[in-house]
Structure formats: C-alpha cells, structure tokens
Design goal:
Blueprint (H helix, E strand, L loop, with lengths): L9 H7 L6 H11 L7 H7 L5 H13 L3 E5 L5 E5 L4 E7 L5 E3 L3 H14 L6 E7 L6
Parallel strand pairs: 3-5
Antiparallel strand pairs: 1-2, 3-4
C-alpha cells in the first residue's frame, strides 16, 4: 500500500481531470489525502460540516471513476471508500460495523494465476471481498 506521501495530491488529480478546485473541494481533497484505511461518505460529511453533502458524494464518485479510490459496498448497501493503491485488491469487511481491512495472501495470488493459466489468459487485476463478523462485533 502506498504511503500518504506517495499518493497523488487529490487537488492535482481533480484539476487534471478538468474540475475546478472550489474552496469546499479543496477542504475535501485535503481531508481525504490524509485518510488512512477505509472511510464512509457520512464520516466525511460529519468531519466537514461546511462542505455540502452533494459535493462530498460527487467528489468521491469522481475519485472512484479516476481509479484513485476504491468503493466497497457493505451487505447493507452502505459504501466504504479506501485508496486504490494496488491492482490486486483483497478486503475483509465486517458486515456488522463496516470495518475494512486489506490483506494479501500468496495462496490467493497462486490460485488466480492457476485459474488464468487454465483459461489461457493472464490476471491483470482483481478484487477479493470477504464479508465477516469481526472479533469486535462477536
């Protein structure tokens, strides 16, 4: 996973995509750029009460569409976001509290390579999402 310093500056990404950097969008880009782990749109809205709900959701969608953020839907439909720092994404998601953890297991990579070989192709990316009840929620 990329460190905070290695991530692209979100205001630069949005400007490169042709979007104006309004003051609310700048606040949002600054806050998101310092986020580690996963987060919800509602948590962002609570942290930035001066930024409109629509601005938060539109900007998150732009960043997902640009491949900067990864959107993961919980079983109840509530989305969580995290930085899409890798082409190979593995998540364990608590279906109760929404906590998202990334994991990387060589056995998963080997299985995917074997599957690709079987169908005569090459894995160029994938996403694995395991829904669990975490230890805190048991």
């Amino acid at each position: 996973m990329a460190t905070l310093a290695e991530r692209p500056r979100l205001d630069d990404v949005l400007e490169d995509l042709g979007y104006r950097m309004t003051p609310p969008r700048r606040l949002l880009a600054r806050l998101l750029g310092n986020k580690a782990g996963s987060f919800s749109a509602e948590a962002i809205i609570e942290e930035l009460p001066t930024v409109g709900r629509a601005t938060v959701y539109r900007t998150l969608k732009l960043l997902v569409d640009a491949g900067i953020l990864c959107k993961t839907a919980l079983p109840d439909g509530a989305p969580r976001y995290s930085f899409d720092d890798a082409r190979h994404h593995h998540h364990v998601i608590c279906a109760n509290c929404g906590k998202v953890e990334e994991f990387r297991k060589p056995v998963v990579e080997r299985l995917l390579r074997a599957m690709a070989k079987e169908v005569g192709g090459a894995v160029v990316g994938h996403r694995v999402e395991l829904y669990i009840t975490c230890a805190d929620c048991l």
